[in-house]
Amino acid sequence: MQDIPLRALMIDDSEDDVLLTVRELKKGGYHLIYERIETAEDMKKALREKPWDIILCDYKMPTFDAPSAIALFMETGLDIPFIVISGTIGEETAIECMRSGAHDYFMKGKLSRLCPAIARELEDTKVRIKQKQAEEKLRQSEEKYRTILEDIQEGYFEVDAAGNFTFFNNSTCHLLGYAPEELEGINYRQYTDQDNAKKLFQVFHNVFNTELPAEGFDWQIIRKDGNKRYVEASISLQKNPQDKKNVFRGLVRDVTERKLAEIQLQQTLESLKNAVGATIQVLVAALEARDPYTAGHQSQVARLAVAIANEMGLSSHNIEGIRMASSIHDIGKLSIPAEILTKPTRLTDIEYEIIKEHPQSGYDMLKDIKSPWPLAQIVYQHHERMNGTGYPRNLRGNEILLEARIMAVADVVDAMSSHRPYRASLGIEAALREIEQNRGSLYDEAVVASCLRLMREKGYRHLEKTDDIIPTPV
Question: What is the pTM of this model?
Protein backbone atom coordinates (compact mmCIF):
# COMPACT_ATOMS: atom_id res chain seq x y z
CA MET A 1 0.00 0.00 0.00
CA GLN A 2 1.35 3.42 -0.93
CA ASP A 3 1.88 5.70 2.05
CA ILE A 4 -0.32 8.78 2.08
CA PRO A 5 1.34 11.81 3.68
CA LEU A 6 -0.60 13.15 6.63
CA ARG A 7 0.25 16.04 8.94
CA ALA A 8 -1.59 15.52 12.22
CA LEU A 9 -1.81 17.75 15.27
CA MET A 10 -2.40 15.55 18.32
CA ILE A 11 -3.98 17.30 21.36
CA ASP A 12 -3.52 14.74 24.12
CA ASP A 13 -1.80 14.52 27.51
CA SER A 14 -1.02 10.79 27.05
CA GLU A 15 1.98 9.82 24.92
CA ASP A 16 0.87 6.19 25.01
CA ASP A 17 -2.61 7.02 23.65
CA VAL A 18 -1.04 9.05 20.88
CA LEU A 19 1.23 6.18 19.90
CA LEU A 20 -1.77 3.87 19.67
CA THR A 21 -3.46 6.33 17.35
CA VAL A 22 -0.28 6.73 15.29
CA ARG A 23 -0.01 2.96 14.89
CA GLU A 24 -3.62 2.79 13.68
CA LEU A 25 -3.00 5.53 11.13
CA LYS A 26 0.14 3.84 9.80
CA LYS A 27 -1.79 0.57 9.46
CA GLY A 28 -4.30 2.55 7.35
CA GLY A 29 -1.57 3.56 4.90
CA TYR A 30 -0.72 7.02 6.17
CA HIS A 31 2.82 8.36 6.29
CA LEU A 32 2.47 10.39 9.45
CA ILE A 33 4.12 13.61 10.50
CA TYR A 34 2.68 14.62 13.86
CA GLU A 35 3.12 16.80 16.91
CA ARG A 36 1.63 16.21 20.33
CA ILE A 37 0.49 19.19 22.43
CA GLU A 38 -1.61 19.53 25.58
CA THR A 39 -2.13 23.25 26.27
CA ALA A 40 -3.99 26.13 24.65
CA GLU A 41 -0.79 28.10 24.11
CA ASP A 42 0.87 25.17 22.39
CA MET A 43 -2.18 24.78 20.16
CA LYS A 44 -2.15 28.45 19.17
CA LYS A 45 1.55 28.24 18.38
CA ALA A 46 1.21 25.04 16.36
CA LEU A 47 -1.73 26.37 14.30
CA ARG A 48 0.07 29.64 13.71
CA GLU A 49 3.42 28.20 12.62
CA LYS A 50 2.64 24.98 10.72
CA PRO A 51 0.09 23.65 8.24
CA TRP A 52 -1.99 20.65 9.33
CA ASP A 53 -4.20 18.15 7.51
CA ILE A 54 -6.05 16.87 10.57
CA ILE A 55 -6.54 17.65 14.28
CA LEU A 56 -7.09 14.74 16.69
CA CYS A 57 -8.11 15.88 20.17
CA ASP A 58 -8.60 14.04 23.45
CA TYR A 59 -11.80 15.14 25.18
CA LYS A 60 -10.47 15.69 28.68
CA MET A 61 -6.98 16.68 29.88
CA PRO A 62 -5.74 18.12 33.21
CA THR A 63 -5.36 21.72 31.90
CA PHE A 64 -7.20 21.64 28.58
CA ASP A 65 -10.30 19.95 27.11
CA ALA A 66 -11.98 19.38 23.75
CA PRO A 67 -14.66 22.12 24.07
CA SER A 68 -11.92 24.70 24.77
CA ALA A 69 -9.82 23.39 21.89
CA ILE A 70 -12.82 23.48 19.55
CA ALA A 71 -13.60 27.09 20.56
CA LEU A 72 -9.98 28.12 19.98
CA PHE A 73 -9.97 26.29 16.65
CA MET A 74 -13.17 27.98 15.49
CA GLU A 75 -11.66 31.39 16.19
CA THR A 76 -8.88 30.73 13.67
CA GLY A 77 -11.28 30.24 10.74
CA LEU A 78 -9.15 27.35 9.46
CA ASP A 79 -10.80 24.57 7.47
CA ILE A 80 -9.17 21.46 8.99
CA PRO A 81 -11.02 18.27 10.01
CA PHE A 82 -11.29 18.26 13.83
CA ILE A 83 -11.91 14.83 15.34
CA VAL A 84 -12.50 14.17 19.03
CA ILE A 85 -11.01 10.92 20.47
CA SER A 86 -11.89 9.94 24.02
CA GLY A 87 -12.22 6.97 26.30
CA THR A 88 -15.02 8.35 28.45
CA ILE A 89 -17.13 10.60 26.25
CA GLY A 90 -20.85 9.98 26.12
CA GLU A 91 -23.09 10.29 23.07
CA GLU A 92 -24.72 13.52 24.18
CA THR A 93 -21.34 15.09 24.90
CA ALA A 94 -20.01 13.92 21.51
CA ILE A 95 -23.01 15.45 19.72
CA GLU A 96 -22.47 18.72 21.56
CA CYS A 97 -18.83 18.73 20.39
CA MET A 98 -19.94 18.30 16.81
CA ARG A 99 -22.46 21.11 17.17
CA SER A 100 -19.62 23.31 18.39
CA GLY A 101 -17.47 22.57 15.35
CA ALA A 102 -15.98 19.09 15.59
CA HIS A 103 -16.32 16.93 12.47
CA ASP A 104 -16.43 13.49 14.13
CA TYR A 105 -15.65 11.58 17.33
CA PHE A 106 -14.24 8.15 18.21
CA MET A 107 -13.72 6.06 21.28
CA LYS A 108 -10.06 5.25 22.00
CA GLY A 109 -10.75 1.55 22.15
CA LYS A 110 -12.58 1.54 18.82
CA LEU A 111 -10.29 3.15 16.25
CA SER A 112 -10.97 0.78 13.34
CA ARG A 113 -13.15 3.41 11.64
CA LEU A 114 -10.64 6.21 12.15
CA CYS A 115 -8.72 5.87 8.86
CA PRO A 116 -11.84 5.71 6.63
CA ALA A 117 -13.28 8.67 8.55
CA ILE A 118 -10.09 10.67 8.05
CA ALA A 119 -10.08 9.84 4.33
CA ARG A 120 -13.68 11.00 4.08
CA GLU A 121 -13.02 14.21 5.99
CA LEU A 122 -9.93 15.03 3.92
CA GLU A 123 -11.92 14.57 0.70
CA ASP A 124 -14.76 16.71 2.05
CA THR A 125 -12.21 19.37 2.97
CA LYS A 126 -10.83 19.37 -0.58
CA VAL A 127 -14.35 19.84 -1.93
CA ARG A 128 -15.03 22.69 0.49
CA ILE A 129 -11.73 24.38 -0.35
CA LYS A 130 -12.44 24.14 -4.08
CA GLN A 131 -15.93 25.51 -3.54
CA LYS A 132 -14.58 28.38 -1.46
CA GLN A 133 -11.95 29.10 -4.11
CA ALA A 134 -14.64 29.11 -6.79
CA GLU A 135 -16.82 31.39 -4.67
CA GLU A 136 -13.89 33.71 -4.03
CA LYS A 137 -13.05 33.76 -7.72
CA LEU A 138 -16.68 34.57 -8.51
CA ARG A 139 -16.69 37.28 -5.86
CA GLN A 140 -13.52 38.79 -7.26
CA SER A 141 -14.93 38.59 -10.77
CA GLU A 142 -18.16 40.26 -9.67
CA GLU A 143 -16.18 42.90 -7.82
CA LYS A 144 -14.00 43.44 -10.88
CA TYR A 145 -16.97 43.91 -13.19
CA ARG A 146 -18.78 45.99 -10.61
CA THR A 147 -15.73 48.27 -10.54
CA ILE A 148 -15.66 48.37 -14.35
CA LEU A 149 -19.37 49.18 -14.50
CA GLU A 150 -18.97 51.94 -11.95
CA ASP A 151 -15.95 53.40 -13.73
CA ILE A 152 -17.38 53.53 -17.27
CA GLN A 153 -18.99 56.75 -18.42
CA GLU A 154 -21.89 54.94 -20.08
CA GLY A 155 -24.86 54.03 -17.97
CA TYR A 156 -25.33 50.28 -17.50
CA PHE A 157 -28.77 49.10 -16.43
CA GLU A 158 -30.99 46.07 -16.12
CA VAL A 159 -34.78 46.16 -16.13
CA ASP A 160 -37.43 43.50 -15.65
CA ALA A 161 -40.05 42.55 -18.21
CA ALA A 162 -42.25 45.46 -17.09
CA GLY A 163 -39.46 48.00 -17.59
CA ASN A 164 -38.61 48.57 -13.92
CA PHE A 165 -34.98 49.12 -12.93
CA THR A 166 -33.46 46.12 -11.14
CA PHE A 167 -29.79 47.09 -11.44
CA PHE A 168 -27.86 50.16 -12.57
CA ASN A 169 -24.49 51.85 -12.14
CA ASN A 170 -23.68 55.33 -10.91
CA SER A 171 -23.52 56.72 -14.46
CA THR A 172 -27.20 55.80 -14.94
CA CYS A 173 -28.07 57.64 -11.73
CA HIS A 174 -26.09 60.68 -12.87
CA LEU A 175 -27.74 60.61 -16.29
CA LEU A 176 -31.26 60.58 -14.88
CA GLY A 177 -30.49 62.79 -11.88
CA TYR A 178 -31.74 60.33 -9.24
CA ALA A 179 -30.03 58.94 -6.15
CA PRO A 180 -29.56 55.14 -6.23
CA GLU A 181 -32.26 54.53 -3.62
CA GLU A 182 -34.68 56.69 -5.66
CA LEU A 183 -33.98 54.95 -8.96
CA GLU A 184 -34.49 51.41 -7.68
CA GLY A 185 -37.68 50.00 -9.19
CA ILE A 186 -38.53 53.11 -11.24
CA ASN A 187 -40.40 52.37 -14.49
CA TYR A 188 -39.30 53.87 -17.79
CA ARG A 189 -42.62 55.76 -18.05
CA GLN A 190 -41.54 57.88 -15.10
CA TYR A 191 -38.61 59.44 -16.97
CA THR A 192 -40.08 59.75 -20.50
CA ASP A 193 -43.02 61.54 -22.05
CA GLN A 194 -45.86 59.62 -23.69
CA ASP A 195 -44.41 59.60 -27.21
CA ASN A 196 -40.95 58.48 -26.11
CA ALA A 197 -42.48 55.87 -23.80
CA LYS A 198 -44.28 54.36 -26.79
CA LYS A 199 -41.05 54.40 -28.78
CA LEU A 200 -39.15 52.72 -25.96
CA PHE A 201 -41.88 50.11 -25.45
CA GLN A 202 -41.74 49.18 -29.13
CA VAL A 203 -37.98 48.69 -28.96
CA PHE A 204 -38.20 46.46 -25.88
CA HIS A 205 -41.13 44.59 -27.42
CA ASN A 206 -39.13 43.84 -30.60
CA VAL A 207 -36.11 42.70 -28.59
CA PHE A 208 -38.34 40.41 -26.50
CA ASN A 209 -40.05 38.84 -29.54
CA THR A 210 -36.99 38.46 -31.77
CA GLU A 211 -34.36 37.97 -29.02
CA LEU A 212 -32.13 40.18 -31.18
CA PRO A 213 -30.42 43.20 -29.64
CA ALA A 214 -31.37 46.76 -30.55
CA GLU A 215 -28.33 48.94 -31.09
CA GLY A 216 -27.84 52.67 -31.36
CA PHE A 217 -31.45 53.83 -31.00
CA ASP A 218 -32.13 57.17 -29.37
CA TRP A 219 -34.95 58.79 -27.45
CA GLN A 220 -35.54 61.67 -25.09
CA ILE A 221 -35.54 61.36 -21.30
CA ILE A 222 -36.82 63.70 -18.60
CA ARG A 223 -34.43 64.04 -15.68
CA LYS A 224 -35.63 64.34 -12.11
CA ASP A 225 -35.05 68.11 -12.28
CA GLY A 226 -37.32 68.32 -15.36
CA ASN A 227 -34.55 68.93 -17.90
CA LYS A 228 -34.85 66.96 -21.12
CA ARG A 229 -31.84 65.14 -22.58
CA TYR A 230 -31.29 62.96 -25.64
CA VAL A 231 -29.81 59.52 -24.99
CA GLU A 232 -28.60 56.67 -27.19
CA ALA A 233 -28.82 53.07 -26.03
CA SER A 234 -28.22 49.44 -26.93
CA ILE A 235 -30.57 46.83 -25.46
CA SER A 236 -30.34 43.04 -25.31
CA LEU A 237 -32.39 40.26 -23.76
CA GLN A 238 -30.91 38.41 -20.78
CA LYS A 239 -32.51 35.12 -19.78
CA ASN A 240 -32.28 33.96 -16.19
CA PRO A 241 -32.40 30.13 -16.19
CA GLN A 242 -32.93 29.97 -12.43
CA ASP A 243 -36.28 31.71 -12.20
CA LYS A 244 -37.03 31.59 -15.94
CA LYS A 245 -37.67 35.31 -16.03
CA ASN A 246 -36.60 37.51 -18.89
CA VAL A 247 -34.79 40.73 -18.11
CA PHE A 248 -33.28 43.37 -20.31
CA ARG A 249 -29.85 44.91 -19.99
CA GLY A 250 -28.26 47.75 -21.86
CA LEU A 251 -25.84 50.61 -22.14
CA VAL A 252 -27.01 54.21 -22.40
CA ARG A 253 -25.18 57.48 -22.88
CA ASP A 254 -26.02 61.15 -23.17
CA VAL A 255 -25.93 62.36 -26.80
CA THR A 256 -27.74 65.66 -26.30
CA GLU A 257 -24.95 67.82 -27.73
CA ARG A 258 -24.60 65.57 -30.77
CA LYS A 259 -28.36 65.42 -31.30
CA LEU A 260 -28.76 69.18 -31.06
CA ALA A 261 -25.85 69.58 -33.49
CA GLU A 262 -27.57 67.15 -35.89
CA ILE A 263 -30.82 69.07 -35.62
CA GLN A 264 -28.97 72.33 -36.24
CA LEU A 265 -27.11 70.77 -39.17
CA GLN A 266 -30.35 69.47 -40.65
CA GLN A 267 -31.91 72.91 -40.35
CA THR A 268 -28.83 74.42 -41.98
CA LEU A 269 -28.95 71.85 -44.76
CA GLU A 270 -32.63 72.56 -45.34
CA SER A 271 -31.90 76.27 -45.52
CA LEU A 272 -29.00 75.56 -47.85
CA LYS A 273 -31.14 73.30 -50.00
CA ASN A 274 -33.80 76.00 -50.22
CA ALA A 275 -31.19 78.57 -51.15
CA VAL A 276 -29.64 76.25 -53.75
CA GLY A 277 -33.08 75.39 -55.06
CA ALA A 278 -33.91 79.06 -55.49
CA THR A 279 -30.60 79.59 -57.30
CA ILE A 280 -31.34 76.61 -59.56
CA GLN A 281 -34.75 78.02 -60.43
CA VAL A 282 -33.19 81.34 -61.40
CA LEU A 283 -30.60 79.62 -63.60
CA VAL A 284 -33.22 77.39 -65.23
CA ALA A 285 -35.45 80.38 -65.91
CA ALA A 286 -32.52 82.26 -67.45
CA LEU A 287 -31.65 79.34 -69.72
CA GLU A 288 -35.27 78.70 -70.65
CA ALA A 289 -35.74 82.34 -71.68
CA ARG A 290 -32.69 82.03 -73.95
CA ASP A 291 -33.14 78.49 -75.32
CA PRO A 292 -36.44 76.68 -74.67
CA TYR A 293 -35.14 73.51 -76.34
CA THR A 294 -32.28 73.19 -73.87
CA ALA A 295 -34.50 74.03 -70.88
CA GLY A 296 -37.00 71.30 -71.80
CA HIS A 297 -34.16 68.86 -72.31
CA GLN A 298 -32.81 69.54 -68.81
CA SER A 299 -36.14 68.88 -67.07
CA GLN A 300 -36.61 65.64 -69.04
CA VAL A 301 -33.08 64.47 -68.20
CA ALA A 302 -33.75 65.30 -64.56
CA ARG A 303 -36.88 63.13 -64.49
CA LEU A 304 -35.11 60.20 -66.14
CA ALA A 305 -31.96 60.53 -64.00
CA VAL A 306 -34.04 60.57 -60.82
CA ALA A 307 -35.97 57.48 -61.99
CA ILE A 308 -32.71 55.63 -62.71
CA ALA A 309 -31.27 56.63 -59.34
CA ASN A 310 -34.42 55.35 -57.63
CA GLU A 311 -34.18 52.09 -59.55
CA MET A 312 -30.57 51.74 -58.39
CA GLY A 313 -31.58 52.23 -54.76
CA LEU A 314 -29.66 55.45 -54.10
CA SER A 315 -30.41 57.46 -50.98
CA SER A 316 -32.96 60.27 -51.07
CA HIS A 317 -30.15 62.75 -50.38
CA ASN A 318 -28.16 61.62 -53.43
CA ILE A 319 -31.29 61.52 -55.57
CA GLU A 320 -32.08 65.11 -54.65
CA GLY A 321 -28.55 66.12 -55.69
CA ILE A 322 -28.98 64.31 -59.03
CA ARG A 323 -32.30 66.07 -59.60
CA MET A 324 -30.81 69.50 -58.98
CA ALA A 325 -27.66 68.90 -61.01
CA SER A 326 -29.65 67.42 -63.91
CA SER A 327 -31.98 70.44 -63.92
CA ILE A 328 -29.03 72.70 -64.76
CA HIS A 329 -26.53 70.32 -66.33
CA ASP A 330 -26.45 72.43 -69.53
CA ILE A 331 -26.29 75.76 -67.70
CA GLY A 332 -22.91 76.36 -69.31
CA LYS A 333 -24.69 76.88 -72.62
CA LEU A 334 -25.58 80.36 -71.40
CA SER A 335 -22.07 81.26 -72.60
CA ILE A 336 -22.70 79.76 -76.07
CA PRO A 337 -23.93 82.16 -78.81
CA ALA A 338 -27.67 81.76 -79.33
CA GLU A 339 -27.26 81.32 -83.08
CA ILE A 340 -25.22 78.18 -82.50
CA LEU A 341 -27.68 76.75 -79.94
CA THR A 342 -30.69 77.24 -82.19
CA LYS A 343 -28.99 76.50 -85.54
CA PRO A 344 -31.43 74.39 -87.62
CA THR A 345 -28.65 72.55 -89.47
CA ARG A 346 -25.70 70.42 -88.52
CA LEU A 347 -22.95 72.16 -86.56
CA THR A 348 -19.54 72.71 -88.08
CA ASP A 349 -16.46 71.30 -86.36
CA ILE A 350 -15.62 74.72 -84.92
CA GLU A 351 -19.18 75.20 -83.66
CA TYR A 352 -19.13 71.74 -82.11
CA GLU A 353 -15.87 72.58 -80.29
CA ILE A 354 -17.55 75.70 -78.92
CA ILE A 355 -20.53 73.59 -77.73
CA LYS A 356 -18.09 71.21 -75.97
CA GLU A 357 -16.97 74.08 -73.75
CA HIS A 358 -20.30 74.17 -71.89
CA PRO A 359 -19.32 71.64 -69.13
CA GLN A 360 -16.34 73.84 -68.24
CA SER A 361 -18.49 76.97 -68.34
CA GLY A 362 -21.14 75.30 -66.20
CA TYR A 363 -18.51 74.28 -63.66
CA ASP A 364 -17.15 77.84 -63.52
CA MET A 365 -20.66 79.16 -62.86
CA LEU A 366 -21.45 76.69 -60.08
CA LYS A 367 -18.13 76.02 -58.34
CA ASP A 368 -18.55 78.78 -55.75
CA ILE A 369 -22.16 77.92 -54.85
CA LYS A 370 -22.29 76.28 -51.39
CA SER A 371 -24.35 73.13 -51.65
CA PRO A 372 -24.83 69.77 -49.86
CA TRP A 373 -24.05 68.10 -53.20
CA PRO A 374 -21.12 68.31 -55.65
CA LEU A 375 -23.30 70.07 -58.23
CA ALA A 376 -20.41 71.75 -60.02
CA GLN A 377 -18.48 68.49 -60.42
CA ILE A 378 -21.54 66.57 -61.64
CA VAL A 379 -22.19 69.21 -64.29
CA TYR A 380 -18.47 69.24 -65.15
CA GLN A 381 -18.40 65.46 -65.73
CA HIS A 382 -21.70 64.68 -67.44
CA HIS A 383 -20.04 64.30 -70.88
CA GLU A 384 -17.21 62.07 -69.65
CA ARG A 385 -17.24 58.43 -70.80
CA MET A 386 -16.17 55.20 -69.10
CA ASN A 387 -13.33 54.52 -71.57
CA GLY A 388 -11.88 58.02 -71.35
CA THR A 389 -13.16 59.26 -74.73
CA GLY A 390 -15.46 61.88 -73.21
CA TYR A 391 -14.78 65.53 -72.50
CA PRO A 392 -13.54 67.91 -71.19
CA ARG A 393 -10.98 65.95 -69.07
CA ASN A 394 -11.05 62.41 -70.53
CA LEU A 395 -11.90 60.86 -67.15
CA ARG A 396 -12.26 57.07 -66.91
CA GLY A 397 -14.40 54.62 -64.93
CA ASN A 398 -14.66 55.43 -61.25
CA GLU A 399 -12.89 58.74 -61.78
CA ILE A 400 -16.34 59.88 -62.90
CA LEU A 401 -18.89 60.55 -60.16
CA LEU A 402 -21.78 58.05 -60.10
CA GLU A 403 -24.20 60.97 -60.35
CA ALA A 404 -22.48 62.09 -63.56
CA ARG A 405 -22.54 58.55 -64.96
CA ILE A 406 -26.30 58.42 -64.33
CA MET A 407 -26.78 61.81 -65.92
CA ALA A 408 -24.71 60.77 -68.96
CA VAL A 409 -27.11 57.91 -69.75
CA ALA A 410 -30.21 60.02 -69.12
CA ASP A 411 -28.72 62.81 -71.27
CA VAL A 412 -28.06 60.53 -74.25
CA VAL A 413 -31.45 58.80 -74.07
CA ASP A 414 -33.33 62.10 -73.95
CA ALA A 415 -31.20 63.78 -76.63
CA MET A 416 -31.71 60.93 -79.12
CA SER A 417 -35.41 60.46 -78.41
CA SER A 418 -36.34 64.15 -78.49
CA HIS A 419 -36.81 66.60 -81.35
CA ARG A 420 -33.96 68.99 -82.09
CA PRO A 421 -33.89 72.08 -84.29
CA TYR A 422 -31.61 70.34 -86.79
CA ARG A 423 -33.29 66.89 -86.83
CA ALA A 424 -36.39 64.94 -85.89
CA SER A 425 -36.46 62.53 -82.96
CA LEU A 426 -34.54 59.28 -83.54
CA GLY A 427 -36.94 57.42 -81.27
CA ILE A 428 -36.62 55.79 -77.88
CA GLU A 429 -35.58 52.40 -79.27
CA ALA A 430 -32.61 53.92 -81.10
CA ALA A 431 -31.60 55.62 -77.84
CA LEU A 432 -31.87 52.36 -75.89
CA ARG A 433 -29.85 50.49 -78.54
CA GLU A 434 -27.14 53.16 -78.21
CA ILE A 435 -26.68 52.73 -74.48
CA GLU A 436 -27.09 48.95 -74.68
CA GLN A 437 -24.44 48.51 -77.37
CA ASN A 438 -21.98 50.79 -75.57
CA ARG A 439 -22.55 49.65 -72.00
CA GLY A 440 -19.24 49.22 -70.24
CA SER A 441 -17.31 51.17 -72.87
CA LEU A 442 -19.05 54.55 -72.95
CA TYR A 443 -21.70 54.12 -70.27
CA ASP A 444 -21.76 52.59 -66.79
CA GLU A 445 -23.13 49.03 -66.96
CA ALA A 446 -25.23 49.25 -63.78
CA VAL A 447 -26.75 52.55 -64.86
CA VAL A 448 -27.58 51.19 -68.32
CA ALA A 449 -29.12 48.04 -66.82
CA SER A 450 -31.37 50.14 -64.58
CA CYS A 451 -32.42 52.40 -67.46
CA LEU A 452 -33.24 49.45 -69.73
CA ARG A 453 -35.20 47.77 -66.95
CA LEU A 454 -37.22 50.95 -66.44
CA MET A 455 -37.97 51.44 -70.11
CA ARG A 456 -38.48 47.87 -71.31
CA GLU A 457 -39.81 46.03 -68.27
CA LYS A 458 -41.56 48.72 -66.24
CA GLY A 459 -42.85 50.88 -69.08
CA TYR A 460 -41.34 54.13 -67.82
CA ARG A 461 -41.63 57.07 -70.25
CA HIS A 462 -39.51 60.05 -69.30
CA LEU A 463 -41.20 62.37 -71.80
CA GLU A 464 -44.46 62.07 -69.87
CA LYS A 465 -44.37 64.91 -67.33
CA THR A 466 -45.37 63.85 -63.83
CA ASP A 467 -44.79 65.04 -60.29
CA ASP A 468 -44.04 61.47 -59.25
CA ILE A 469 -40.29 60.82 -59.47
CA ILE A 470 -40.83 57.09 -58.80
CA PRO A 471 -41.38 55.20 -62.11
CA THR A 472 -44.66 53.33 -62.42
CA PRO A 473 -45.47 50.68 -65.05
CA VAL A 474 -48.03 51.49 -67.73
Answer: 0.45
